[in-house]
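re: that complex we talked abt at group meeting.

here r the seqs, copy pasted straight from the sheet so there may be weird spacing, ignore it
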Amino acid sequence: MDAAFSLLVSSLGLAGIYFMLAVGLSLIFGLMHVLNLAHGAVFALGAYVALGVMESMTGLPATPRLVISFAAAAVVGALAGFLIERVFLRATYGRSYIQMVLTLGLAFAVTACLAGILGHDPIQLPLPSWYRDVTVIGDSRLANGRIFIAAFAAVAFVLVWSFMRRSSHGLVIRAGVENRSMVQALGIDVAKSFTLVFVLGSALAGIGGVLAASFYGTVSPDLGTRQLIFAFIVIIIGGLGTVEGTALAAVVVAVMQQYLNFYGPSGSGDIVTIVLLAAVVLLRPRGMLGKKALA
Amino acid sequence: MRFTRWSTLLVLVVVLLAALPVLPAFLLPGVLPAPSTAPTSLQVLAVGLTFASLAMTFDILHGYTGMLSFGHVLWFALGLYAPAVLMREWQWGFFQAVAVSLIVTALLAVLVGLIALRVVGIAFAMVTLAFAEAFYLLAKNNPVGFLGGDEGINVPASSLPERFQAVADAKYTYWLALAVLVLIAGVLWYCAGSRAGRVWLAVRENAQRAESIGLQATRFRLMVFILAAVLASLAGSVYLVIVRGAHSEMASADFALLILLMVMLGGSGRLWGAALGGFVYGVAQLRLGALSTTDLFESAPSWVAGPLQEPQFAIGVLVVVLMLITPGGLAGLLERLPRRRESALRG
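got the structure back, here u go
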């Protein structure tokens, strides 16, 4: 019982990381029909920004450094997203396939660049001591870091969700996901939304990278690639272009994966999740809450 | 006219490559680690040729029939793992093991193809990725006990055919890689030119239209899928002879996506373009690291030299630049050259 409860908290932490990575991917694909394979690299970049901040600003206590890490990772992520969209994708609008290959090239270039400068091996991320402590509730021992990540992602979900529901920008994005040519026909500049979605999604991915680095305790160049596959699973199961679907699917995938990995044979959770991806694509291609099928 | 010129050139390249181990040795600094006839050099070239074979099998799916598979790596890995397991667990001979591995690949390709081909486009890419990733996780975590886990499966030289055992005899391995490259290129070239090959192009260009004139797109897609899988598996078995082991890295999603980059680097939709991309990357991934000992690199700061030694950095940047200039890759650039000269003469 106690193990099951702390596993649940841990799963929700993992779900938070999946959500931060997947929500941008989902909105970008939903709106622009581009599978942004560089998203994982932005995620890894965020983790390295945190590493840089935590290791260099040693004059400050660890907690403010962590706060600065999040802010810096968000800014770097947003800048990266802005550059990818404005410099590389804008030059190839209308050719979503070439755009995907471009982002794949960027993904490998950025990941290998990080590996070339800082090495392939995982580097330990310094964290505040409260982050590593455990809180005891009843007979369950809950890792503070996991609780923090889950809570952080929940707040991010509420913010992104209300942005999409309450703001006029969100309205245009939602309409664009549903029928882009109709939005254009109404005289709305969708290209602005493209940039917005890219900047927002990449900033969230950058923050997600910090969360992931703190979840695993280490930073390595392949951090993003490993998570990206699970992010694919989350966006497809959740349904493309929906924030709620992404959040729901992130929880479902993370809980299933963690429990099976823990109680089943080692690695079985990962394999079952992968099989689930194929099953959903084949049997319910529009996902849980999506309106459009993946094609 | 252009066709004859290209095919003469290709035959010439193949003949030169075949004669390389017996021709007088020459140095190719940067590309080859030793004189051209040395075993280490032939080993590097054999890897390049095998990656070229793999890239061509991907391109018949991608460039010719318009199917984007993120899981093509599964078939290459199967060609590595299936013979390695059969040879280690049951002491089978190499050729028997490869023959059975090809049959297993074909059967599995029918199964995976029938499932994955219910969808097209990115969805197809995702389903194929799921299958390949499932195999990768199986091989890496090794719950079944015979897939080697993190260490992979080593194939002792003594279990290989005699010709391929001694490192000093690398020329036979090299010739094997070249022979398989020519075989795969020949089969694919013949198929692409056949009546079925015309249908593949039609399916790529407009599947609905092909359907409307009575050609079942899915059936033709399945045909190409199985063909590409079996040939990729064959390339995998050649790679097994070269590196003498199967490792889960070769089934990873990273490598699956790298195949796409190799093909886009060389030029998709042209077999020789794909082969060029595969060859260049296959050689570069072994040789870029060695560049660090050259003067140019030793004088450069580490944040410049570090990334430049990473083959994935090089291919990533090259593909990004190429995609911005021409989606045809290196082959597209090369094809433009003679035409430019002609128009310059006329102009």
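couple things i noticed - Strands of chain B lie at 153-154, 245-246. The radius of gyration of chain B is 21 Å.
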